Amino acid sequence: MESRPDSLHRITLTYDKHRSSEASIMGNEVDQAFIQDAEHRPKPTISDAGGIPVIDLSPILRYPIPSDPADPVPDELSDLIAEIGAACQDWGFFQVVNHGVELELLERVQAAAREFFALPVEEKRRVKRDDVNPLGYYDTEHTKNVRDWKEVFDFILTESESDLLQLKNQWPEYPPELREACEEYVEGVKELAYKLLELIALSLNLPAKRFNGFFEDSTSFVRLNHYNPCPSPDLVLGVGRHKDGGALTVLSQDEVGGLDVKRKADGEWVRVKPRPNSYIINVGDIIQVWSNDKYESVEHRVSVNSEKERFSIPFFFNPAASTNLKPLDELVSEENPARYEEYNWGEFFKARKDSNFKKLGKENLQIYHFRKKV
């Protein structure tokens, strides 16, 4: 990126102007591209009662997660593993507190993200993603062929390049602290993700580190989300209904809230109540496939607010692109045969990224496309 010594001064002078107009990706009118079909529009009110389980992770701060299945497990840890398993089976979502990630790491990323999204739109688009490299800034993402009311910035943990995927980070010049804040934050969240992965493995009666090897050279990435206030929150969604294609998602949302989860018990949408210094966890399609449908990836969406902007930061925990996915042999039997054909994660990941990048006019790739007839 070429040097522009006067840019920061110019950005500062125009901050207020662009904050309310040009930095907004949507403006004051709702384009038809954002309008959800009637059956998918959010209701005027949504309950946060009877919501996803809240799980206290403090036992893993006191006891090591046993790597050998023969090792004794303290009662507190055993109870936690059972809680995790029940949440994965009944909800596919849960919220964690006392998770061990330093709050300062999150606050630094949040502050830098606010600065970045407040920049003029042409400044943000200097690091715009494209159909070759899906990383960087983007403001016209689609979910199920309807445009989302949001703007995002994506960065990956491990850069890589192959015939299938080019994954190269595009760090903006401003704010200068964004890159360091993001890189330090992701180390803390990655550690939490591995611990959750091990607890989930134990809840399936597998060795704690059964999944870990799949995540060497991972395609895990972090997204900074910004949702502007919307004049018609009854017609659009910040992110349309979807299921996450990866293994786990570790989400921080701000105090505004807006994440809705489809409750498995009755199919109703439930708002996830914001809790200070907590993370929202959901199992993705990969866990559903590995567990042979014991744990299900659950549909969720983001509703928008007519008065307040909202920020969130999901960490998408994904395996290496070369990983071939199928139900684990240990969880398959004559009575419980494998329900999915084997598929390649890199190809799946690219197909999903392509469908987000542009409107395809058809359903994007889903794991049900690989479901066996059993």
TrEMBL record:
This is Fe2OG dioxygenase domain-containing protein. PROSITE patterns: FE2OG_OXY. It comes from Dioscorea zingiberensis. Residues 218-319 form the Fe2OG dioxygenase domain. One of its GO terms (molecular function) is oxidoreductase activity. Signal peptide: none annotated. Belongs to the iron/ascorbate-dependent oxidoreductase family. Gene3D superfamilies: B-lactam Antibiotic, Isopenicillin N Synthase, Chain. The keyword Protease does not apply. Pfam families: 2OG-FeII_Oxy (PF03171), DIOX_N (PF14226). InterPro entries: DIOX_N, IPNS-like_FE2OG_OXY, IPNS-like_sf, Oxoglu/Fe-dep_dioxygenase_dom, Plant_2OG-oxidoreductases. Keywords: Iron, Metal-binding, Oxidoreductase. PANTHER family: OXOGLUTARATE/IRON-DEPENDENT DIOXYGENASE (PTHR47991).
